[in-house]
Design goal:
Elements: E1 22-25, E2 28-31, H1 36-43, E3 50-56, E4 69-72, H2 75-84, E5 89-94, E6 103-109, H3 117-126, E7 134-141, H4 146-161, E8 164-174, H5 179-190, E9 195-202, E10 217-224, E11 236-237, H6 241-245, E12 263-264, E13 268-269, H7 292-302, E14 308-311, H8 318-325, E15 329-334, H9 337-349, E16 354-359, H10 369-379, E17 395-399, E18 403-408, E19 419-420, H11 422-432, E20 442-447, E21 449-450, H12 453-463, E22 469-474, H13 475-482, E23 487-495, E24 498-507, H14 509-525, H15 528-541, H16 544-552, E25 565-571, E26 579-580, E27 583-587, E28 592-595, E29 598-603, E30 607-610, E31 616-621, E32 626-630
Parallel strand pairs: 3-26, 4-15, 4-16, 5-8, 5-14, 9-13, 14-15, 18-20, 19-21, 20-22
Antiparallel strand pairs: 1-2, 3-16, 6-7, 8-10, 9-10, 11-12, 17-18, 23-24, 24-30, 25-27, 25-31, 27-28, 28-29, 31-32
The chain binds S-adenosylmethionine (SAM).
Residues 74-75, 95-97, 140, 286, 288-290, 312-313, 315-316, 318, 333-336, 339, 413 line the site of S-adenosylmethionine.
């Protein structure tokens, strides 16, 4: 019996610890008395219609079917689909957002103006014009509070587990930001007994802090579904010179021979370099892209040829590409359209065959969820950030009669908030609204879907005792109005050898607006002091004018806008329905043509030629928006 108890700190720092937030109840983790996760898991994975939008390869022949899939949509909904179709995966690798607190952006490269491409290419040998042709756009957001992240991750892990075959493994790639917390979740979801390894992937390069050790490793957790049977094919490396010299024995003079294959690779990997250098041939210009060698090691260790390898946060498509190269089947899923396009093009170049699906989850995504959120916010007239409101509210609208009207927008990165249901409206009424400033008369709640309209309205009328009105608004209607197609002008000519389409002009209001906004931001950021400082710094190196010019020259595009085109695809099979690319021409970031996935040494010259009659043409702009037009053979 202790003599006394010395007080310590019974309360954890808010938002930091999860262990005392969790109680085990019905084998489902629960956060304090919050039942949300439990209710959502009880309800099941949200299943939406899947629209097949493109077939690449054999799938176009009616008798055959592609087993490889690219799915645009959330992990949890992709799993719902696979489960419904009884498709099991044999290996899952996921590299989800790390909760790093960052918004990831990608560089968007204007292509060379094809009308003067040769001249530009020549000029570039002398002048570094890179800065002038590049702007950035948000790709995906990674800003979460820990609890929301862990709730979300918990559901994703449960969803993935539900589609894993009995002998399957899962590898979850994270780092110091959240890895240890997710390890706890994985113990819960997969069972501590199924933990196999915590792999440290070590690398070097990048920024080095002065106040602590440089953080130079990621952590990959490997669990199997079953503790009886799983695949592990060890990889060996050669014994050290010393061991070889003494005849591959454990110690000098011993008779016991070490195994012939070499020594097995252990759980810290120091021999795989990250993809960093722009000249790296595997670089896809996708933030957080992982190297092929990393996936090669994982896929070879935990799967056999012919098995299905899935990546539900697929990014640049590294898992699908390596799985294909290693003769496995692949499923690639990602919420962002840029991921699907990057992966599609990567796999086309590799000669893979696959189908592309789009999950019809309610919001026609404007490239990706982060950009859709930004777009939505900009479209809600009068919406502004308001200091008086906490972060639950997206902001408020100042109304002359009602005063400040707080606005709630669901987080498109988190599927659970998209559906307006009783638990969510309950939270709004009982947690969020009571904290609003005195005198608030109305709130606006945007939704993507309502679970049960009548029940929800009944709940509001019975339980809303706040004295404030709740106005419900459908988010989808806002977006549908604004997605305008790019305008394509072309001329088609038929000759003995086939059809030649010349693109005359390409007008993309979406991109023009984006470039204007980028130029404005840049000119605001480059204050006179910056210019002076950079100037003098460069002057010391002897070429001050160059920097000055670079900082002040806005990005401009020609009147015909052809440098905004990334890919042209011709469907010669059908005028409607699922896309089949019979001829495609991609323009790489240096202006060179990639024809049907094969690199060429030709600069693009505004034309695309096909030996079959094109029925439809799809043009993808450099930010990833796609426009389709039916070909009029008389234009
Ligand atoms: C760290 S990146 C993956 C990078 C990838 N391993 C590679 O090597 O290119 C995370 C990806 O997850 C995607 N993502 C975020 N939330 C998602 C969700 N709920 N479902 C599916 N994908 C999601 C993002 O769009 C992003 O491409």
């Amino acid at each position: 019996m202790p003599v006394k108890y010395i007080p310590y700190y019974p309360n954890t720092v808010q938002g930091q610890a999860i262990l005392d937030n969790i109680i085990r109840n019905r084998r489902v983790l629960r956060y304090r008395d919050n039942d949300k996760v439990y209710e959502r898991i009880q309800r099941g994975m949200p299943y939406y219609e899947m629209e097949k939008i493109e077939v690449v390869g054999v799938g176009s022949q009616p008798a055959k079917k592609n087993e490889n899939m690219l799915i645009r949509g959330e992990c949890i909904s992709a799993c719902a689909y696979l489960k419904d179709k009884n498709i099991k995966v044999d290996l899952a690798y996921i590299d989800p957002p790390f909760a790093s607190g960052a918004d990831y952006a990608r560089k968007v490269y204007l292509r060379k103006n094809p009308k003067i491409a040769e001249a530009i290419a020549k000029a570039e040998e002398e002048l570094e014009l890179e800065e002038l042709r590049v702007f950035e756009e948000k790709m995906y957001g990674d800003i979460w509070n820990k609890e929301d992240y862990l709730n979300w991750m918990y559901e994703n892990l449960q969803a993935i587990k539900s589609v894993m075959s009995e002998t399957a493994s899962i590898y979850v790639h994270l780092d110091w930001h959240i890895g240890h917390y997710v390890k706890v979740l994985m113990d819960e979801v997969f069972g501590e007994g199924n933990f196999k390894n915590e792999i440290a992937w070590c690398y070097s390069g990048g920024a080095v802090p002065v106040d602590r050790f440089p953080k130079k490793h990621d952590t990959i957790y490997w669990y199997s579904k079953s503790n009886e049977e799983w695949i592990y094919i060890p990889e060996y490396r050669d014994y050290s010179k010393k061991t070889q010299q003494r005849g591959r024995t454990q110690v000098k003079g011993s008779d016991a021979k070490l195994r012939a294959e070499g020594t097995p690779i252990n759980d810290w990997w120091v021999d795989i370099a990250p993809v960093t250098s722009p000249t790296d041939h595997e670089k896809m210009y996708y933030a957080t892209q992982k190297p092929k060698a990393l996936l090669e090691r994982i896929i070879k260790a935990s799967s056999n040829e012919g098995m299905i390898v899935a990546d539900f946060f697929g990014g640049s498509g590294v898992t699908a590409k390596v799985a294909h190269d290693l003769k496995r089947k692949f499923i690639h899923c990602d919420v962002g359209i840029n991921s699907i396009q990057t992966t599609r093009d990567r796999l086309v170049a590799a000669g893979a065959e696959f189908d592309i699906y789009d999950i019809q989850d309610g919001v026609s995504l404007f490239r990706n969820p982060v950009q859709t959120m930004d777009k939505l916010k900009s479209l809600i007239t009068g919406l502004k950030n308001e200091d008086a409101l906490d972060s639950f509210w997206e902001g408020g609208i100042q109304d002359s009669k009602l005063g400040l009207v707080p606005v709630y927008i669901p987080n498109l990165l988190d599927h659970s908030t998209k559906v307006l249901d009783i638990p969510l409206i309950n939270r709004i009424i009982n947690e969020a609204m009571p904290d609003l400033p005195d005198g608030t008369k109305q709130v606006i709640v945007f939704y993507v879907d309502i679970e049960n309209d009548a029940e929800l309205k009944k709940f509001i009328s019975e339980y809303n005792a706040t004295g404030m009105d709740i106005v419900l608004r459908d988010l989808k209607s806002i977006l549908d109005d604004v997605v305008i197609n790019d305008e394509i002008n072309y001329q088609i000519k038929e000759s003995k050898t086939g059809f030649k389409i010349e693109i005359k002009s390409f007008i993309s209001d979406r991109l023009i607006q984006k470039i204007d906004a980028y130029n404005q931001k840049k000119s605001l950021n480059s204050s006179r002091k910056d210019i002076f400082d950079e100037d003098s710094k460069e002057n010391e190196e002897g070429n001050g004018n160059r920097i000055k010019k670079k900082m002040l020259t806005p990005i401009s595009i020609s009147r015909h806008g052809l440098e905004l085109i990334e890919l042209i695809s011709l469907d010669c099979t059908s005028k409607d329905g699922i896309w089949k690319s019979d001829f495609e021409l991609k323009i790489d970031k240096n202006g060179y043509v990639i024809l049907n996935g094969k690199k060429t040494k030709d600069l693009w010259n505004t034309k695309i030629v096909s030996d079959k009659k094109p029925l439809r043409m799809k043009i993808r702009n450099i930010a990833g928006d796609e426009s389709i037009i039916i070909i009029d053979n008389h234009s």
